[in-house]
Design a protein that fits this description.
The protein is built from 7 helices and 15 strands. By secondary structure, the protein is α+β, with helices and mostly antiparallel strands. It folds into 2 domains: 95 residues, 2-Layer Sandwich (Double Stranded RNA Binding Domain), CATH 3.30.160; 174 residues, no CATH class. Strand 3 and strand 4 form a beta hairpin. The longest helix is centred in the C-terminal third of the chain and has 18 residues. The relative contact order is 0.09.
Length: 305
């Protein structure tokens, strides 16, 4: 492995890291065990490595570009702290990084819009963001998060219809060719507590029930049953790794992309086993190419009719 000597990992230094024929890990000069793994494809992923009970532990923190180097550093410090029990001076450094996080904890850009001059609105919207910013989310919050995550991974080719005022659209994303996509999600863990334990969902399933009708763009109800989306993306978070389970992390999700016509017409839900028979799961890095491939095939079929 390659060691990055005398430099602190930052956006500038990570952007400048070379891409080689084999995976390479570059280590930070300030926080021991914090590094970035560079793949031959050009992808760069933050990692942390430490030793616990005589064994080396390596944890993926997130992809460069989706999280910043400073965010990854704070996550690395927390991870090491969990393994080491805040040994030596790590607790002091962790406290300093946590105070830095608190100082810029507001993730919303207030440089424009109503929030720039309205402190109450800023606090309300910041509170909403913090409610979603949890490692294990409620079903409602996770559904919105998964929809936004898929939208971000497919942008700018796909965009949500609400950006142009169509809030009641029966699909979640659409492209410039008129293809519509629906996002469904499920996770192994959910924050319903019995004592202090998370309740585990034993039988993951995804909603595939066709609607009885839909609201058109002019707010007219169309009494027409069926699916409106051409394809579905099923986002699955199946990680159960104690304190390292984090539904906010894109690399902990798997994605199944299926043409709507391939879904069983007589079912309200579909299970993970059924999805695995229909298609292979991909990670967040390959989602765009998988969706693009299926959408192109559907457009080709449509053109031949």
């Amino acid at each position: 492995m390659t060691v990055l000597r005398g430099k602190r990992l930052s956006k500038r230094t990570v952007d400048a890291l070379p891409v080689r024929k084999k995976d390479a890990v570059f280590w930070d000069s300030e926080l021991k065990g914090f590094g970035v793994r560079v793949y031959p494809t050009g992808s760069k992923v933050f990692v942390v490595q430490t030793r616990s009970r005589g064994k080396v532990k390596r944890v993926t923190l997130g992809a460069h570009g989706l999280i910043t180097a400073d965010q990854a550093r704070r996550k690395a410090a927390r991870t090491i702290a969990r393994f080491k029990g805040l040994e030596d001076d790590l607790g002091i450094r962790l406290e300093r990084w946590e105070s830095e996080l608190e100082s810029d904890a507001d993730p919303y850009d207030w440089s424009s819009g109503a929030g720039a001059a309205n402190p109450i609105l800023r606090r309300v919207l910041s509170g909403i963001v913090r409610r979603y910013d949890r490692s294990v989310m409620s079903n409602i919050h996770r559904a919105t998060y998964a929809e936004c995550l898929v939208g971000e991974l497919l942008a700018p080719d796909w965009s949500p219809p609400w950006t142009r005022g169509y809030d009641r659209a029966p699909w979640d994303l659409q492209d410039r060719h008129g293809m519509y996509l629906k996002v469904e999600q499920c996770a192994l863990l959910r924050p319903w507590r019995r004592g202090r334990s998370l309740v585990r969902r034993q039988t993951p399933r995804f909603e595939i029930a066709p609607s009885t009708g839909f609201w058109a763009e002019d707010d007219v109800w169309i009494d027409q049953a069926g699916h409106r989306a051409h394809l579905h993306v099923f986002a699955w978070h199946g990680v159960d790794d104690g304190p390292f389970t984090d539904q906010r992390e894109p690399d902990q999700w798997q994605f199944f992309t299926v043409p709507t016509s391939s879904l069983p017409a007589d079912r309200l839900h579909i299970g993970l086993d059924d999805l695995e028979e229909l298609t292979d799961a991909v990670g967040y890095e390959d989602l765009w190419s998988r969706v693009d491939e299926i959408a192109a095939e559907l457009r080709s079929r449509k053109a031949k009719k």
